Please model this.
Amino acid sequence: MATHTLSVPISLENEKNPWVAAAARFDEAAMRLKLDDGMRKVLRSAAKELTVHIPVLLDDGRIEVFTGYRVQHSLARGPAKGGIRFAPDVTLDEVRALASWMTWKCAVVNIPFGGGKGGVICDPNVLSDAELEKLTRRYTAEIIDFIGPERDVPAPDVNTNEKVMAWIMDTYSMHARHTVTAVVTGKPMALGGSRGRPEATGRGCMIVILKALELLGLKPQDSRVVIQGFGNVGGMAAKLMSAIGFKIVCMIEYDGAVYNPNGLDIAALQKHRKQTGSITGFADGEDMDKDEAMFLECEVLIPAATENVIHSGNAERIRCKILCEGANGPTTPLADEVLADKKIFVIPDILANAGGVTVSYFEWVQDRQGFFWNEQLVNQRLEEIMTESFDAVVEYARAHHVNNRIAAYMLALDRVAQAIKLRGIYA
Ligand code: GLU
Model:
């Protein structure tokens, strides 16, 4: 059980509520930083929250109404920044937590943004392309006064992609009566997207994993990697990491897992999934129980799917040396304590997956300048930022005798608190 004093005590019942999880880390970091009560109140709550109800005319002629949110947690260091997810289980609490994580993430990597997040409660798998487009455009129209290059800049997240970003950009631009590329990031290249953005989150994970290996005296060639999630983050990390010698021994998806102790051929697995619709039944690997695969012994485990997959009920069974959180919030606060006892080197989400928003920042800069960089420059600048941020977090943890997650939060909270202090409280 958690020993620190929390404004929201964590129990087995609420440990999977993302807002409780975010609050627990926030409280501990704020306490250690000795932030005063007023500042805690400012940083803890979201600055603005918008709920919209979105009517959509479905293909069969019926009208359905979907509920969506856009939350701006902080605007202290710049415009809000963060993705939009389309999923049946989206809740306001989850969007709030994710928005606050974006604030801390942008502050950890020191890019000039606050944090925001959006979500629409829907199942994109049962919507046609035309319905999805209508939903996206109407959601955009409903939040149009809330977003903008100087206000709040959305991006892809769970179940949204560059096509959805193109619709948002177009809808916003139609209302503005001119093309506004910098209103969203993660766009197609032809519409002001950045080179290197699709790979950025996976590449960022690889960069910080290489740094962690170095600290632990390990080599990529001797490192077995287990990845949960074969989407944009997990799939890219798998591809990039196997190309430099890591052995990706297991890939886990929602419908099964595939294992090969000698390392999976990621390109072939990608092809297999494209042909069959699933990673299971892959000729060059064995199918495995997806609920057991996360407990394989390995050097690196990358949960790159959803929240709360490592919790008080299973943390004891995790057998990796390095845990790199590709997803947002994959570990609950109760699990943190177990992982610490097991001496697992955790690269927390707000650092590990910050490569995505870092290249989103580059995209926003390029759009505003109308001057585009080559891929080498994007990757080089990403590497500089991820490396510096990793070093800063690890050094902070060492100097303050805290774990990497709390160090990342402390670093971030301190930066945002400083910005608020310097700006003062407007009355
Ligand atoms: N959705 C991604 C994240 O959680 C990217 C956000 C962005 O690029 O603004 O970090």
Observations:
- The domain at 47-191 is CATH 3.40.50.10860 (Rossmann fold).
- The pocket of glutamic acid is lined by residues 81-83, 155, 157, 185-186, 328, 353, 356-357, 360 (CB under 6 Å).
- The mean pLDDT is 96.
- The longest strand covers residues 63-74.
